[in-house]
Amino acid sequence: MDVIKKLQKIVGIDRATTSPVQLYCYSSDSSQIRGTPDYVVRPQNTEQVSQLMRFANKHGIPVTARGAGTGLAGGAVALNGGIVLDLSGMDMILDIDINNLQVAIEPGVIHSRLNKALEPKGFFFPPDPGSSEMCTLGGLIANNGSGMRTVKYGTTKNYVLDLEVVMADGSVINTGSKTLKSSAGYDLTRLMVGSEGTLGIITKAVLKILPLPKARTVMLASFKTPELAGDVVVKTLSAGVIPSACEILDRVTVEVLNAYDPNIAIPDAGATILFELDGTKGSVQEQAKVVEIVCKPLASGIRIATDREEMEEIWSARRLVGAAISRINPNKVRVYVGEDIGVPIKEIPRMLKLVQSISKEFDLSIMTYGHIGDGNLHTGMCIDMLDNEQWEQLDLAADKIHRTAIMLGGTVSAEHGIGSARSRYMRLERGDALDVMILIKRALDPKGILNPGKLGV
Amino acid sequence: MDVIKKLQKIVGIDRATTSPVQLYCYSSDSSQIRGTPDYVVRPQNTEQVSQLMRFANKHGIPVTARGAGTGLAGGAVALNGGIVLDLSGMDMILDIDINNLQVAIEPGVIHSRLNKALEPKGFFFPPDPGSSEMCTLGGLIANNGSGMRTVKYGTTKNYVLDLEVVMADGSVINTGSKTLKSSAGYDLTRLMVGSEGTLGIITKAVLKILPLPKARTVMLASFKTPELAGDVVVKTLSAGVIPSACEILDRVTVEVLNAYDPNIAIPDAGATILFELDGTKGSVQEQAKVVEIVCKPLASGIRIATDREEMEEIWSARRLVGAAISRINPNKVRVYVGEDIGVPIKEIPRMLKLVQSISKEFDLSIMTYGHIGDGNLHTGMCIDMLDNEQWEQLDLAADKIHRTAIMLGGTVSAEHGIGSARSRYMRLERGDALDVMILIKRALDPKGILNPGKLGV
């Protein structure tokens, strides 16, 4: 059978290829995981995806869906060869329906494009991944991605009302409805969100949107120890204030930021917290007052943005973290391994300390930062990628970080996904629930063609 | 085999019965659906439930989980006999963990009891079913119930972090974790929420809680037509205000309320909206100002509560709706059929009109009220229950209401669940997605013993 001919018949001759250069380009995402597909196919509509799946299922050919390839866990990498289905070309914003507080999109729409389209109408789609300018909404949904605003607004799954999904056998279903609220049967929408292309291919999504907050402010508080920072977060939430973002930077992160750009000038401290507060103008002032009162007895310094410019100045420091990390050592490159743990909020100070002891144990600089408001910590580690010994140390350190997070009741992935990078921890973290996932996987994809080798299923 | 002996061996002699009086008491919920079980069992812990399931699965005995029996769709009725598993005795609040914004509970805890325990600490569990004083949290979770505050706070599924579930074969899993955010595998938590006991038995739950808002106000606005009321809701949301509740009462409902208690004195109008706004003191004032500005050109009357007493006075009218409906005609009884439709927000005015034309067509008084902010409408219908002809008319009217909601892109159940009362609409509403649900059901419960005859699976 001439597979490529058949694929080209479905999507058109210039939309399916076996060119080695193309296959190479599609052999990785933004992690270190590699796997070369046999075919790259770029479908244009649901009907084509359905035909492709029917064909692939009949012949047992693996199919790995892919958006922009910004994933950090190998989720979009074709480990077993087969077809990489590049959905980035299906990128229409189909409908912006303000009256129903929802939008309909194709999976290839870039995250920031949606929010740019919504802003003039006074609305927004709250999940805010760091890769906003690059990542596709389909990828965000498939990984249940989120970002800094989760503490107040929740993750992507809270905003998906309906998905059009092509199943393994090519059948097309809608998982939800256009109503904002439904109790009619199993929540297939939530089952698909975060399933990383192992249960079906998302070809359309209806997303809930919210009105843009009218006002916003930013505060920065420095603490002698991570424990004090953790206390302040708990006390802030207990005082009835849910910040729209609540970010922690550890001592190493602040040092790196200040080295990267001396103008940033964040005070040296055991831990620094950035608060963002949003809402109506009055409520932002009230919230800022409460946070200030909570911080005062515990913080070694507090800075509240007085105008828009100062707000941007403080906030830009947080945005620079990803770039600044390269300054730890110019010969080293950041490697995304063990970078996305989540722990119960009250375990954050303990986790920060344990990461620092792991850093010493394996002689690796680790800067830790993240979304303290929801327990999500990113551990940035840099190595010389040509040095095998450093790779080994990194793997050992990451393994210990993962096991420590699970031991504290946490997760190996709070928002980046499991992919293949973290699939070996699924049994430890999820226990017998993994067996239930495997039963579901087998029921919906009996031939195991959908993104094989991922998620531990 | 002496089944009852075996059941008594597992749970204790006084906790498993075949007494006809007991079986009769457990033969219905709060709907008109009837089905007599063969055994009633009242387990006390997870281990007992696990043993019971292992036994039932081995012998193919149906098991129907039940909380307080407040369901309105026959979800807790044993249609095929077998065991009714009364979980109301497993009613411990296991942990209130303010620092992690979560509580752990057993399924039999009554909804209002949890909020009473949280209130002194300044926190609450946002879903607010009308049956708060009676319903169990296990039942609320199994049906993804909600209430008036969904428009701002979402439904129950948004607050479930982890479930301990006994599967059909007796194995025990945890579906989630204690972290507030996770992207580690399939979202089994959300799959279980709303599955009405057809996939497993919930024996523990970890729920997210929120700080109680510091301030609250209530407004009442009257409109000549439902269209104007619908406009105001859309404009309010577009103006960036998300009310904590946004309830509509149609003309019939207001007439009935005023007849029930003349002191209520809601102005006669084509439609009335009750807004509840919450947040900080300042933000509540700001929100009220916005709602007033939006309402002014469209409403025939606006009333804003000036103090706590007036707020309670206005809000108590909404609470009375369920009771007041009996005043339509003292010889008639409210029947819960077709009572829980949901439609896209912008279709609300159209749906209200169609309900009134259905009311005329079948010569049935229908009062419509509900959660306009999320598209959920309750249609209250009363009949003489001894009159077969009225039953027939009622069934025809309810059938038309259900089909109309689906035709408008809506659902036959926004918050009460499908049970057996609405299972025949699952194919029409969910299409081929029902096949996927059936595949999941068969994979997780191959012998079909978990609550058979429900949900269309």
Keywords:
homodimer, 457 residues, alpha+beta, Uridine Diphospho-n-acetylenolpyruvylglucosamine Reductase, domain 3, Alpha-Beta Plaits, eight-stranded antiparallel β-sheet, 15 helices, 19 strands, 35% helix
Task: Describe the fold and architecture.
2 copies of one chain form a homodimer. By secondary structure, chain A is an alpha+beta fold. Among the domains of chain A are: 93-211, Uridine Diphospho-n-acetylenolpyruvylglucosamine Reductase, domain 3 (2-Layer Sandwich); 215-324, Alpha-Beta Plaits (2-Layer Sandwich); 327-414, Alpha-Beta Plaits (2-Layer Sandwich). The first copy, chain A, has 15 helices and 19 strands. Chain A has helices spanning 3-11, 20-25, 46-59, 111-118, 137-142, 150-153, 188-192, 226-238, 251-260, 281-295, 308-324, 348-361, 388-407, 426-430, 433-444, and strands at 16-17, 39-41, 63-66, 83-86, 93-97, 102-105, 123-124, 160-166, 172-174, 201-208, 210-211, 215-223, 245-250, 271-279, 301-304, 333-335, 341-342, 366-371, 376-383. In chain A, helix 12 (348-361) runs antiparallel to helix 13. The longest helix of chain A has 20 residues, at 388-407. The radius of gyration of chain A is 22 Å and the shape is globular. The mean pLDDT of chain A is 93. Chains A and B meet through strand 9, helix 7, strand 11, helix 8 and helix 10 of A and strand 9, helix 7, strand 11, helix 8 and helix 10 of B.
CATH topology title of the domain at 93-211 in chain A: Uridine Diphospho-n-acetylenolpyruvylglucosamine Reductase, domain 3
What is the gyration radius of chain A calculated from CA atoms?
22 Å
Please tally the β strands of chain A and state the result.
19
Task: Give the quaternary arrangement of the chains.
Answer: homodimer
| CATH architecture assignment of the domain at 93-211 in chain A | 2-Layer Sandwich
Task: Calculate the mean pLDDT score of chain A and round it.
Answer: 93
Q: For the record, give the distance between the C-alpha atoms at the N and C termini of chain A, rounded to a whole number.
A: 30 Å
Number of helices of chain A: 15
Largest interface: A-B, 101 and 100 residues
